[in-house]
Write a structure and sequence with these properties.
The chain is of the alpha+beta class. It contains two helices and four strands, in the order αββαββ. It has helices at about 1-10, 40-50; strands at about 15-25, 25-35, 55-60, 70-75. It has a four-stranded antiparallel β-sheet, with helices on one face. A hairpin with a 6-residue loop joins β3 (about 55-60) and β4 (about 70-75). The longest helix is centred in the middle third of the chain and has 14 residues, at about 40-50. The protein is globular and about 40 Å long.
Length: about 80
Amino acid sequence: MQDDIQWLGPRNPSSEIGFTRQSANQLIIHYRSKRHLPDLCAGLIEAAMEHFGADGVIDRQSVGQGQSEALFVITKHN
């Protein structure tokens, strides 16, 4: 996905996405964008989970002020 985002604007990247695996059942996605699109990111995560039949919970946490940065803590149910 990051490559596709970079493809949209390689000279001026509009988004940064980082991933950290906390455990076998938990993933943290760190999203940062000048375009303030964390709602879109959340929707893409939810749609991917539904598409692949993943059962879990997404906990969205704002970082800083405004809508430019968010953490998504995804916990998979067994």
